[in-house]
Each structure stands twice: as structure tokens, then as C-alpha cells.
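User: Here's a structure from my thesis project, written as C-alpha cells. My advisor, Dr. K., wants to see whether a designed sequence matches the one we expressed. Can you design one independently, without my sequence as a hint?
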């Protein structure tokens, strides 16, 4: 068991991250709560179980426990866990910067330290993002669960790129072109035509991905936020972000909003997350009335 503590710079940020992972988890693959995350991961060509638990969410520091098959994490696994939970982002500095903006200030004061989780594997996250586009979160979770169970059985894990490339069409649903795009990207990942080289800049990686059919600017932007630790992405065409802009009384056309959002650099990814939060909070309030 690996135990480590982090500075609680932004209030309940880890609870938010675990909550996000819980809402977007794949049933039968990821075991999640508002304070824990578990799944099978690949290690030396076999499946082992990763478990992460937030055991102290109060006070000046937060404590996490993490293990793989009950054993301490190795260096690579620890690095991935830190990335998944965005443990190396300076929430306090981000909040101080964005909090100078009078539009975001009240939301940051009421919900400090909002963070977007990273991802366990960028290729997996790319495929999950493509499968989840233009459908509800619930529908995406159902499709991903069917795909994973269909290809790996139970207990399920996220399939290899090769498995998805070979048989993913048997379990994916939706427009044929979208399915073909997912299969094509899985094939490119399996053949290493798509690689996520750590020495390449985010802009280089994003441009390479845009050259593949089925991958557009929104997909690349979201992947950069989740997998490349890019804190300065703004998804000006995102419908939920546009809804939040309208609620706030700021420009709500993509071009004008993109220009307006420059004030939030270099943390436009986190500003995007606050706009998502604002829109979703508004929807929840409307449903409660």
C-alpha cells in the first residue's frame, strides 16, 4: 500500500475529481465512489487491480492510499495516479488568477479548487472521448460497458487497442461513420501510427491527431485537458459552455466567446470547467424547482 499526502490548496478539489470519475466511470470496469477509484490495469502483460482511496478530505492536507494488488505502486504507476488525480496542479495559484475576474469570482469563492481529472492512458481516453461524443454520459457509459464486457469478459477491463480494432464493431452502436472512425483510431493506436511521445509539445500532438479522420478540434481540446495536462484549452464550441456563457450574460457565440476567454489565460481549461459547473448547477436548480 502506498500512502501519500498532498497540500489541500483548493478546498474539496479531490472530492470533485473523484466525483467526476464516478459520474463518467464505465460500469463493470471501474469501481468508483465520491472518494475512491478502482479498476484493472495492465502490468507486464497481465491484469492487476488498482485501488485508490481518499482517507482524509479535511484540513490542510489530504491523504490518499493507493495499491496494486495490495502492493505499493511502482514509480510509473505513482506518476500515473498523480496525473489521473491532477495532484501536481497548483489549485491555489489557479484560483487566485481566475478569481480576479469578476464573472468567475463568486463561483470560485463558492467552489474553490475545481479541477478536471487526468487520464490513466491517453489512447484509452481518446477512444472513450470519441465513443462518448454526441450522446449522453449515461449512453456513453452503457456503450463502453458493453464494449469492455464483450471483448474481455468479467471481471472486465478496458480492451487493448488491437482487440477494439479487430472486434469493436460487434459491440459499438451508432452511425456507421462514427464506428468506423473509432475502429480506425484503435487500429492506428495498435500499429503505433498514433503515439503519445512525452518529448513532443502539446501543439505538435494535437496537430498530428487532427490529421486522422473522426478527430476534430473539440476531441483534441478535451483530450489535451485530460491527458496532456494542458491548462489553457478553451472549448468555445462546446454547447454546455455556450449555455453557461448565455446564463452569465457574456458573449455566447463561439468566435466572440473565444476572444472573451483570453482574459482567463493561462488557465482557460479550468475556466471551461467552471463554465461547465455553472451550466450544470443551473440545470440542477431548475429541476429542483
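Assistant: Designed independently from the structure alone:
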Amino acid at each position: 500500500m502506498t500512502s501519500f499526502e498532498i497540500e489541500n490548496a483548493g478546498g474539496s478539489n479531490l472530492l470533485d475529481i473523484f466525483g467526476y470519475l464516478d459520474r463518467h466511470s464505465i460500469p463493470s470496469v471501474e469501481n468508483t465512489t465520491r472518494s475512491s477509484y478502482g479498476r484493472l490495469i495492465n502490468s507486464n502483460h497481465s491484469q492487476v487491480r488498482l485501488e485508490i482511496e481518499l482517507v482524509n478530505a479535511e484540513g490542510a492536507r489530504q491523504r490518499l492510499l493507493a495499491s496494486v494488488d495490495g502492493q505499493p505502486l511502482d514509480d510509473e504507476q505513482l506518476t500515473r495516479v498523480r496525473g489521473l488525480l491532477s495532484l501536481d496542479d497548483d489549485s491555489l495559484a489557479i484560483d487566485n488568477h481566475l478569481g480576479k475576474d469578476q464573472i468567475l469570482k463568486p463561483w470560485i469563492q463558492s467552489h474553490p479548487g475545481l479541477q478536471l481529472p487526468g487520464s490513466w492512458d491517453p489512447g484509452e481516453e481518446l477512444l472513450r472521448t470519441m465513443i462518448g461524443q454526441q450522446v449522453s454520459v449515461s449512453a456513453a457509459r452503457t456503450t463502453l460497458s458493453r464494449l469492455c464486457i464483450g471483448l474481455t469478459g468479467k471481471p472486465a477491463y478496458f480492451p487493448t487497442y488491437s482487440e477494439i480494432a479487430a472486434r469493436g464493431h460487434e459491440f459499438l452502436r451508432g452511425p456507421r461513420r462514427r464506428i468506423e472512425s473509432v475502429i480506425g483510431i484503435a487500429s492506428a493506436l495498435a500499429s503505433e501510427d498514433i503515439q503519445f511521445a512525452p518529448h513532443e509539445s502539446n501543439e505538435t500532438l494535437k496537430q498530428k491527431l487532427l490529421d486522422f479522420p473522426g478527430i476534430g478540434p473539440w476531441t483534441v481540446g478535451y483530450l489535451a485537458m485530460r491527458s496532456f495536462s494542458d491548462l489553457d484549452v478553451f472549448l468555445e464550441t462546446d454547447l454546455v459552455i455556450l449555455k453557461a456563457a448565455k446564463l452569465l450574460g457574456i458573449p455566447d457565440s463561439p468566435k466572440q466567446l473565444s476572444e472573451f476567454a483570453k482574459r482567463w489565460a493561462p488557465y482557460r481549461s479550468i475556466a471551461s470547467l467552471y463554465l461547465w459547473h455553472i451550466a450544470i448547477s443551473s440545470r440542477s436548480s431548475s429541476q429542483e424547482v
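When you compare it with your expressed construct, this may help: The longest helix spans residues 268-288.
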